[in-house]
Amino acid sequence: MLSTPNLSSCIMPQTKPYQPLIFRLLHGVNAILIIFAAITGFLVYDSWDGRFGGLGITRANRELIDYHGTFGFLIFFVALPLFLIYCIKAGRSRLIQGDTLKNWQQIGKPIWWLGLQRITNTLMLISALFAAISGKFMDENWLPLGDLTQIPYYIHLLAWLTLVITLALHILMSAKVGGSLLLLSMFDLKYRPQDSPKYWKDKLVSLFRKNN
User: Fold this and answer.
1) In the chain, what is the straight-line distance between the N-terminal and C-terminal CA atoms, in Å?
2) Apex CA 195: angle with CA 189 and CA 201, to 5°?
3) Which residues of 4-43 are buried (b: 16+ CB within 10 A; e: fewer)?
4) Domains plus CATH for the chain?
5) Do the Cβ atoms of 107 and 167 come closer than 8 Å?
6) Do 88 and 114 meet the contact criterion of CB atoms below 8 Å apart?
7) How far apart (Å, rounded) are the C-alpha atoms in residues 33 and 36?
8) What is the DSSP letter of 145?
9) How does pLDDT run across 55-74, given as a tens digit for each residue?
10) Cis link prior to 22 (omega < 30° from 0)?
11) Is the whole-model pTM more than 0.70?
């Protein structure tokens, strides 16, 4: 979820907004893992299922399931939990707010686009969470055995589709709200002195105390 510029400067800021270093790292790791999980997930579906359409570009390969499961494991047990904690504790402004739906009456205005981005961010996190959880309820032998009617598998497929759609919308909404400068800010390698990793421990302690 990209940190958007102030509403007064929406849309298309003139200067590149600053993203906290820890946010860039967590966002980047989750983005990479989710993209690879989505790609391997499609390849698994394409090779073992394909009932709802496919490309037929892969043959049934058990290793694809293992690769997909590895990405899912890293997302479920490491990357996503840390990112969710950060979003809840420090990134609430990037998610749905109490007035988000009310601002939908101002169609086409900056506040409307900002609200749409927040909704997209929230839906993307929810779909990622559902995809990770439903994946843990699946048996890796279902697809090789042709058992394609299990409920967790259908939930996993739906979550995967929703995640891919919301990921695309997330990029489009971020480009609309902040332009190329907002997107490029996620790849900036520089950080402010007070954002140094050596201060992360103290900041995390202070953050948890503030929100408790």
Assistant:
1) 24
2) 125
3) bbeeeebbebeebbebbbbbbebbebbbebbebbbebbbb
4) 16-205 (1.20.950)
5) no
6) no
7) 5
8) T
9) 888 787 888 999 999 999 99
10) no
11) yes
